Amino acid sequence: MADSKTILIAEDSSVILNLTKKILELQNYKILTAKNGGEVLKQVESQKIDAILMDLNIPVKNGMECTREIRKHENKDIAKIPIIAVTGNANNYTMEDFKEAGVDAYLPKPLDFDMLVQTVKQHLGE
């Protein structure tokens, strides 16, 4: 079997985090977690991450700020990690906002887990 892909879940709600983690682990992904924007940036710099599920309402730095920082990273591999925004407040953002920040895809909360798996696989080229 090929090496499993690593997905970083940036989410401050432990309920959503644990559910999402379980769903993705069932798909044989390796899961890393971050409870705030500061942790997201530390994680992407310390290990290889294949995709990020980014809650937009996380403490320290919100998901849009994190996404912008990752897109500007001097390491090109880090700068191009697929980022899937997850939010319960999509009405606060336009597709233009997502594009401008560098978001690759977007999933509304409450999460549709079939859609989550499909979106992750699509952005990992599976």
From TrEMBL:
Residue numbers carrying 4-aspartylphosphate: D55
Keyword Phosphoprotein included in the entry's annotation: yes
Domain spans labelled Response regulatory: 6-124
Domain of life of the source: Bacteria
InterPro entries hit by this protein: CheY-like_superfamily, Sig_transdc_resp-reg_receiver
Coiled coil: none
TM stretches of this protein: none
Keywords assigned: Phosphoprotein, Two-component regulatory system
Record protein name field: Response regulator
SMART domains, A to Z: REC
Biological process, per Gene Ontology: phosphorelay signal transduction system
Lineage of producing organism: Bacteria, Pseudomonadati, Bacteroidota, Cytophagia, Cytophagales
Pfam families named in the record: Response_reg
